[in-house]
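As a warm-up, study this chain.
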Amino acid sequence: MTLQLIISEYCFNGKAVKKFLLIIYFSLSFTFLLTEDKKIKKITLIFGSSESKSLKRIINAIYFEINKRAVKFEIKLKYFSFARSYHEVVSGNIDGEVGRVQGIKKNNPEMKTLIQLKESLLEINICFYVKKNDKREYADLNKHKEIKIAYDSGYFIVHKLISKELRVAVDSDAHALEMLLLGRVDGALFLEFNGISTLNLPNDKIKDYKKISFYKAKVSPILNKKHHEHISEFEGIIKAMKKEKLINRLIKNNMAEIKLLPKPTNKSKD
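Now compare it with the structure written out below.
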């Protein structure tokens, strides 16, 4: 039957016309439902624009991979000053934050509208490096009023842990290392992400320094409660990436790009 005959049949047959219209109606309804189901929720997370270069590269790389795997949401990173980011998230102006120390809600009742993921994105460890022949006790750095400590100014958490009089803010981990090696400071702080350090200490110098673990915490993303339906998928993606050791590979690759670590070889499995 030709197309013209089919059209003529429907035009002159009342039942056929009704049937034809019903088919169109249900087809459009089904298409609409499929389209609704495929809608991707855009979620904006804050990342402090003044964070360190190493941390910024790592976070960008991790969230790029999360977006590749996400089905029902897509994350956009927005860069604000660190001081402003907390207010924007708590007030609900922004959907969430890339990461905060786990348990932060306990002492901040204003965060009641937020949900922190149980699955950690990173574990950070702030380490203090000093000369091995330094005999001072460093269980509490703040009791030593005479010492000077270099650190990457992007590590804002240091501001809460170390008194202002002791801190010597520099623009990078490399600069902090330079000051440590030249003896311009008594010690320096470096971060470890999942046990991978931002300190690239020359092999012939390793024996001259000792490491003191100063502060350790797990960091997890935070979302406004209105996005609660995406928590399960979000946590599942992070869990899978950790199982594949992908997050650690991203950390190493990005540190290598800014010359904090030697470039990984193809044989590396971590």
